[in-house]
Amino acid sequence: MKLGLRLWSYIREEASHGRKAPIDPFTRESDRPSASQGVPLGGMGSGSISRGFRGEFAHWQIIPGSCEMSPVMENQFSIFITRGGNKKYSSVLAPGQHDCLKKSSDDGISSWDWKLRGDRSTYHALFPRAWTVYDGEPDPELKVSCRQISPFIPHNYEESSLPTSVFVYTIVNTGKERAKVSLVMTWANSIGGLSHHSGGHVNEPFIGENGVSGVLLHHKTANGNPPVTFAVAACENQNVNVTVLPAFGLSRESSITAREMWGTLIQDGSFDRDNFIASPSRPSSLGDTVCAAVCASTWVEPHGRCTVVFSLAWSSPKVKFKKGNAYYRRYTKFYGTSPRSSINMVQDALMKYKHWEEEIDKWQTPILRDDRLPEWYKITLFNELYFLVAGGTVWIALLSVDPSGE
């Protein structure tokens, strides 16, 4: 009995610091690996995040030897549509029921509109790409498709090492009215599990080159692991306007809550452009969650179409193993070891993803069009390559560093 109480107290203490106890007999594992996993994000050897067929970001393997299966539900794409000043539609682009939302507070993400049933949504995967189509949800006169692309390219040993992905949204207006459409990417300062509760995390906006702008999320990892910096960005052009909300929280005590963030988008369809000159957020407190949002807004004419592109990258330059050995990841050979290199990676991803797709097509098309090969073989041949990204692969540069970071 005493041993059980001590173990219970230890598990609670670890959880309060954003850490997961190595032994936890009190918690049932509800997110086991299954056939419902989608295509993972990023190239090889720099950590991975998987994205399920319902759009959830799960199976976190940023830290070697650690895998957090559960999705971070704050990480979502959402859509806001206005027609004629009176018709308004809004929803998180996450079809189906999500039981974990019942545990959220009224000022957290449960206050968002989770309206997609999923019966008009489809998902297709052909690694390293995936396609999701939302046909008439939440707006019956709007068809939205998302194409997810990661730089996994044969014989390209530079870009195939990059921890980045691109999300290309194509919006088709089948109605007779002009529509204002805002797509929003929200992201928690977390590397999965309970890490968002560990405190000391900071967000800051950035404006890059070639119309790329977004938010940096500096994550202070627990247990002495090297820090991680995420960059969430979108590309602005003459048809697309990008705004950001660098920081919002999930509790009533937050300066801006998830509920207030959602309300702003329903009313205005964008954030204040002055947010780009905001100072970095205060370090998050122990037990709190700090998130960011990037909004890309556009007008779509009747029977017209528009493209909106987002990118995600994470900078985790140093990999440290339990025995103390530390190495730089391969991508640092091309982008350096600065945490802010994630800005350069999202910029390059948004500028180069079309070339990536051309190279992927050159690689896959001859096999896909070969009538001598059975269909199951073609699909399996490519999709099972996911394991090179999501199987815990670590790809290092030639030089190692000592545990002190020198």
Automatic annotation (TrEMBL):
Q: Which residues form a coiled coil?
A: none
Q: Which InterPro entries match?
A: GH116_N (IPR024462), Non-lysos_glucosylceramidase (IPR052566)
* Region annotation Disordered: where it falls in the sequence: 19-43
The family database entries (Pfam families) matched by this protein are listed as: Glyco_hydr_116N (PF12215)
Q: Which residues form the Glycosyl-hydrolase family 116 N-terminal domain?
A: 38-356
User: Which GO molecular function, any one, fits this protein according to its record?
Assistant: beta-glucosidase activity
Highest taxon above the source species: Eukaryota
Protein name listed in UniProt: Glycosyl-hydrolase family 116 N-terminal domain-containing protein
